[in-house]
Specification:
Largest sheet: 8 strands, mixed
Number of helices: 10
Radius of gyration: 20 Å
Number of domains: 2
Order of helices and strands: HEHEHEHEHEEEEEHHHHEEHEEE
Structural class: alpha/beta
Strand content: 15-25%
CATH superfamily of the largest domain: Type I PLP-dependent aspartate aminotransferase-like (Major domain)
CATH topology of the largest domain: Aspartate Aminotransferase, domain 2
Bound molecules: pyridoxal-5'-phosphate
């Protein structure tokens, strides 16, 4: 029996645009995203990791400053903040969503907390408002890890535009993708000036491009070449034209996967829900009971349905096991068993 793939990138279903050159495609992509996100304050970057790293450096962490991160998240989040000099404090998540638990955040906050990263797992923002309020009331910067959230919103406001920064991924598994790519949205003007320098190798090249200075020079140690390949706009454009269709198909896949899960009548499983404002990028299931998990995996194999695990919790990892971790629900430690089901266009 031929094994079905776990994933087929969305771009395989949308022909690269031949009507526009790179520059025209870039301008159209920026127009569409400007409308979708309701802001023009964004930077295309090579990956979501690059977006997280730029956000982290823009926050200018100094000795003893802390950042609160989910333990259940992509390792790139930890790398980005560690590199930018933040002390990492890990928190637990909620079994209903796998998003961070506000109670755990409250336990982790101290006078040293400078930032919180909120991951909208599976493009679902449930629980975000509570963390947003905590951050606001304590004047703590909020970074939305919206890697999985293109086309997802909360009360019609696009995810990634609600905190100080929003970080998106266009890697090959995302609903809209170009192999590797990302986007950083900056929603707080106070970070913009430094961010513009960091983005262009730590120089004031932006002022040079605007004709304000005769030359540009080195002004920030932490800058880098964070630019995005202009050829990739032609790959993103046809998908962005059809983003509602793509996310509609993802919803249908999600309903099919929920039917499959529902047919088992599990007692111990937590799994994703339909949220009409989510893009249903990830369909996941987590078991409390190992026997139910075994039954499910056996059945997937019999039906030739591919599946994958997801992030290994940071607080159990080699690099993260000595970091402070605030356990509340006990969900993060179980998350190494999470199972993801396929959601690609069929
Ligand atoms: C929640 C989350 N954050 C960050 C990333 C990193 O994205 P990238 O591969 O574009 O760097 C991913 C990747 O899948 C992710 O799922």
């Amino acid at each position: 029996m031929e094994l079905r793939p776990f994933h087929i990138p969305t771009s395989h279903f949308f022909k690269k645009s031949i009507l526009w050159n790179d520059e025209e495609a870039e301008s159209k992509v920026k127009d569409i995203l400007g409308h979708l996100l309701g802001t023009k304050s964004f930077f295309f970057v090579p990956s979501c990791f690059a977006a997280l790293e730029l956000a982290a450096y823009s926050l200018d962490f100094t000795l003893n400053d802390e950042v609160i991160l989910p333990s259940f998240t992509h390792v790139s989040v930890a790398n980005a903040f560690q590199r930018a000099g933040a002390k990492i404090i890990l928190v637990d998540c909620l079994p209903e969503t796998m998003n961070i638990d506000p109670e755990s955040v409250l336990k982790a906050i101290s006078k040293k907390t400078k930032a919180i990263v909120y991951m909208h797992y599976a493009g679902n923002s449930t629980g975000f408002t509570a963390v947003q309020e905590i951050a606001k009331s304590m004047d703590i910067a909020l970074i939305e890890d919206a890697a999985q959230s293109i086309g997802s919103s909360q009360e019609k406001k696009h995810l990634g535009t609600l905190g100080d920064f929003g970080c998106f991924s266009f890697d090959y598994q995302k609903n809209v993708e170009c192999g590797q790519g990302g986007l950083l949205v900056c929603n707080n003007e106070k970070y913009l000036e430094r961010l513009q320098r960091l983005y262009l190798n730590g120089t004031n090249q932006i002022e040079f491009n605007q004709g304000k200075v005769d030359y540009f020079d080195w002004q920030d140690f932490n800058g880098g070449n964070y630019r995005f390949s202009s050829h990739l706009f032609q790959i993103l454009l046809p998908q962005l034209f059809h983003i509602d269709t793509i996310n509609g198909i993802k919803l249908k896949n999600a309903l099919d996967n929920l039917n499959l899960i529902g047919s088992f009548n599990f007692n111990s499983a937590h799994f994703f829900k339909i949220n009409e404002e989510s893009n249903h990028q990830t369909n996941w299931i987590l078991f409390e009971d190992h026997n139910e998990e075994k039954t499910f995996i056996h059945s997937l194999k019999e039906k030739n349905i591919p599946f994958l695990k997801h992030y290994y919790p940071l607080h159990l990892s080699k690099m993260g096991k000595n970091l402070p971790f605030h356990e509340t629900t006990g969900t993060a430690k179980k998350s190494k068993n999470i199972i993801r089901l396929p959601t690609y266009i069929r």
